[in-house]
Amino acid sequence: MITCGLTLVKQxxxxxxxxxxxxxxxxxxxxxxGATHDSSAYNSLALIEYKFNSSSDIYxxxxxxxxKNHSHEKLDEFVIKVGYRGVCISFTDGKDNLNCGxxxxxxxxxxxxxxxxxxxxxxxxxxxxxxxxxxxxYSIQENRTNPTYILPS
Length: 153
Description:
Layout lengths: L1 H31 L7 H4 L4 E4 L7 H11 L9 E4 L3 E5 L8 E4 H8 L5 E6 L2 E9 H12 L2 H4 L3
Antiparallel strand pairs: 1-2, 2-3, 3-4, 5-6
């Protein structure tokens, strides 16, 4: 009876470590797949969510430029959520209307609908800057998918 109890006590740390490792692997898989599926369990897991600031000084210029090509959509309702491997996009500022998928697939499917702007300085083509929503998403994912950020969790 005593030897059985000692065996359980000796094996408990190994069993606990195994259980915690399995749980950790499942959680890492879940977090890595956040923002890749339309289900609410996945689309709520995002690294960052961004949208246009309607109180910004240049918002009216961007909004008027966007509304020329997209008359049925408003710029202030556009929301993008970026996960480790995917993005969720909403054109109506609602969580019920999120379209989610892997970033490259979403870029191919929605690149014509997602706001993108190019600005030139004094009609000079050398002073040109662009704002691409998917480029921002790719940049965030490249900087945050480093294994050193994921493994310590």
